[in-house]
Amino acid sequence: MKLQVQSTQMTRRARSIATILALFLITHCAEARINVVTLPGRDSVQLTIYNSVDLTLVRETRVLTFRKGLNRLEFSWANTLIDPTSVELRAVTHPDELDVLDVSFPARVSNTLEWRIKSDFAGEVQIEIRYFTSGIRWSADYLAEAARNEKLMNLAGNVRVTNNSGEDYENAQLRLVVGVIRLVEEIAELARRDRSGEAKKALAWSEVDGDLRQKAQRGLNERFDDFERRAGRKNQIVKEGLSEYFLYTVEGRDTIPDGWSKRLPSFQTADVPITSVYKFEREQWGEQVMRYYRFTNSVPDKLGREPLPDGAVKAFRFVTDDQLYGFVGSTAVKYIPVNEQVDLDLGPDLEVQVAPKLMNWQKTDIAFDNWGNIKGWTIKESWQIEVQNSKEIDALVDVRRNFSGDWSIDTQAKYETVDAAKIKFLVPLKPGQKQTLSYTLTTRQGSNATR
Amino acid sequence: MSFGSISQVGRRRKCPCYVTRISLIFAVFTLFNAISVHARVKLVALPERVRVVLSLRNPGATLVEEERLITLQKGVNKVDFSWRGVNIDSTSIQARMLSHPENVTILNTSYPPNENALIWEISSNEAQEERVRISYLLSALTREVTYKAVAEPNETALTLRNYLRLRNDSGEDLSNAEIGIGYGSTFTKTIEHGETLEMLSERVEGLGIKKLLTWDAATLPWDPEYEKKTVGIPLSYVIKNDKASKLGSHTLLPGKVRIFIKTKEQPENAGAAPGEGVAFTGEDWAQLTPVDREMKLYIGQSRDVKVTQRKTKDDRTNIRRNTANAVVLNDTDEVYKIEIENFKKQPIDLVVVEHIPGYWKMAESSHPFERKDAFTVEYKLNLPAESSGTKKTTVTLNVNRLNVQGNEPASY
User: Fold this and answer.
1) Are B388 and B335 in contact (CB under 8 A)?
2) What is the pLDDT of residues B334-389, one digit of tens each?
3) Which of A412, B14, B39, B146 has its Cα between 20 and 30 A from that of A254?
4) Structure ipTM
5) pTM of the prediction?
6) SS3 letters for B210-225?
7) Whether A328 contacts chain B with CB within 8 A
8) Are A109 and A74 in contact (CB under 8 A)?
9) CB contact at 8 A, A74 and A106
10) How far B112 CA sits from the closest chain A CA (Å)?
11) Could you give the 3-state DSSP secondary structure of residue B81?
12) Looking at chain B, which residue has its C-alpha nearest residue A322?
């Protein structure tokens, strides 16, 4: 019954991509251009979706019945975003007995190509058709749930696939590529080139396909069938390295109708150690103190199994015993390689204050040239930086100071040299604690400078 | 599962009293009904909210957490969450299973095109009721913090009331919502779309304050004699957010502070005891004030204190010239005289702020001063009551500026 229904639905559907096999005997002279013999459905579809460019590699297999002699196979793709220059065909079964003689893009017929295939075999052959399409994208997003003391967090990753390609892909295997690849021409542009103006229509698909509800219903029914097969199991995402890229393969099959998007859980890790880090650098953020959750994508920190793709992050903190949320902030993370330490940017924070004050300014060691003009002097500045944590939790405050010229510093406080013109103080503060950093900066000017 | 439940929902939607715009539609599919339905979902139940929590802890966002009871079938269930005319950040929506988090999981989330909706596919190990907590950020539900303070007549203490004013333009009615701002009381209130609700978050009695006048030499005229109007000296109340001031438990959020002072009202009938009333003394915007920091509220001006500052000595010393006889470097010898008169019947604290650029040394000062930073000093003076005329307070300071080239910094 199920099969029957599916087959009814199939014929009812206005497919965008159609494969029509036309069979001719070589000796026959074709009156019409094609002779429709069969309209084979897809047996399988695999989508390999890139996130750095608008590119998806579609690999679909279909079973066609060939006759001995010349077979013509028409492939058309109205209202989609397929790059015609990328369409390829190969025989999966009987590869030695099938020979693609040529491929023609017929005049006056848009979005169509025709393969002429010589077959030494009569019967069913599984063929694979590969092409690039644009309009399908994927993105990663994360949910960070920090514990009340902000020393641990639960991190959950999801991937979201959005299909605006103009084509429904049913029961597709999804593979997601994390990495940056180069394209010399955009796929969307190549798709558009063949048929001026139609690409736009494909994108605004709702105008083309008025029956949105019906389409949505179809998608849901198909997904329902999918669940029947999976019996309620969560699809795992298998991750593997590949050259400079990382490939995520979603287990099982998914259906993403055109216009829909789907979000799938990628991983969930509890109790990832985090540090609440606050940064102050006037040259970067003015007088604001910026807040971060610092963690490392490493195995000891319960992550580190794969690089984490760039994506949006929503950060919450548990604020009650029954784990109600407090919203911490929305942010984005960059691509995080394995073992890299990351600072999740949570925006400015007003409860940690860093207030640098110049307490004394002296001009000394005036040097004169032979004409009595000033040629050199030295500035001595005494600074006090008050660092205050008004929060109920520990804070690590990273205070950076930038200097220029021939400078030297004298301080009792511990600091690290970041580069030739920058130092940083790392100040761990308990809840409610206040600390003052003091240093004297000496800058030699004019002829007093020695470097 | 019957069409009755569909039509029931249909009737409710037509009802004018049905105002919820966020809906959670719970749909269970079996093989048969999956084929037969024509709407996107088959409605089985419209689970009502059993709890709504409104978190205003983040100053820039309103987080709603609502809990609903849904009845799950064994296997895969679909739950459709949709909203219309409500500004929900769709990327913020999270669902957490509260009853059986180990056995009830979200398999995936689908987003239909051109609709404010999503569909969760939830797997359950058996048929059971599940309490689901759905969290999302809702815009157009704005909050304001306002303060009303009544000062004692002697202006040493006040009663502070902290209000949370919530305006709901979100498009959604929130019934019996637990509203919290992260401190003070949590309120359980119903707030309808379009409604503004003001709630008293906390009340602090006997909060110690410091009343302060600030005369800044950089912003106020030095010689009032040349002014057409009496020079007003900025008047502030300083509140320290600490335990000693009966505060110090949380950050004070920014908002408008209106300050009143207690007054004696004239009795209606002669001979009766005077009543108690209040007079408004001014208002200011309070800055965000974390624990252990001071909130300074500029509430008005005092015209009963007069400050006259004059520079009584302005000499260049230690002049060094180049071969062309031009001055390239010098020191200075400067004396300032500040005369202060308090016409009030009470003593008052006055802070005099002086700005001295570059490299300098204080040669002499009649009063102790505090170096606030490299280029600022402050005199904290307590002016006696009625200290005018011969009783006026006079501050003199003798400053030497050193190695002056004319390009010294006055700020940093």
Assistant:
1) no
2) 999 999 999 999 999 999 999 999 999 999 999 999 999 999 999 999 999 999 99
3) B39
4) 0.81
5) 0.79
6) EEEEEEECCCCCCCHH
7) yes
8) no
9) no
10) 5
11) strand
12) B98
Give the chain A residue whose CA is nearest to the CA of B122.
A232
Nearest CA in chain B to A324: B65
Q: Where are the beta strands (DSSP E) in B15-171?
A: 22-27, 49-55, 63-72, 75-83, 94-97, 104-111, 117-124, 128-137, 141-151, 157-168
Q: Which of B337, B349, B307 is nearest to B399 (CA)?
A: B337
Cα nearest neighbour of B61 on chain A: A327
Chain B nearest CA to A91, separation (Å): 35
Closest CA to A217 of B84, B78, B134, B91: B78
Q: How far apart are CA B217 and CA B355, in angstroms?
A: 7
Please state the rounded mean pLDDT for residues A286-310.
94
Q: Please answer yes or no on whether A2 and B31 come within 8 Å at the CB atom.
A: yes
pLDDT in tens, A328-360: 999 999 999 999 999 999 999 988 999 999 999
Q: What's the order of all strands across the beta sheet hosting A374-389?
A: A352-368, A374-389, A434-446, A406-411
Among A442, A411, A441, residue whose Cα is nearest residue A425? A411
**Do the Cβ atoms of A434 and A384 come closer than 8 Å?**
no
Q: How confident is the model at residue A242 (pLDDT cuts 50, 70, 90)?
A: confident
CB B409 within 8 A of CB A361: yes
DSSP B254: P
Render B337-374 in DSSP notation, one character per residue.
EEEEEE-SSS-EEEEEEEE--SSEEEEEESS--EEEET
Quote the CA–CA distance of A155 and A271 in Å, as a whole number: 8
Is pLDDT at A25 greater than 70 in this prediction?
Answer: no
Cβ of A206 under 8 Å from any chain B Cβ? yes
Q: What are the helix (H) ranges across A151-281?
A: 187-193, 198-203, 205-208, 212-230
Q: Which residues of B touch A220 (CB under 8 A)?
A: 34, 40-41, 78, 110, 119
Contact A259 B114 (CB under 8 A): yes
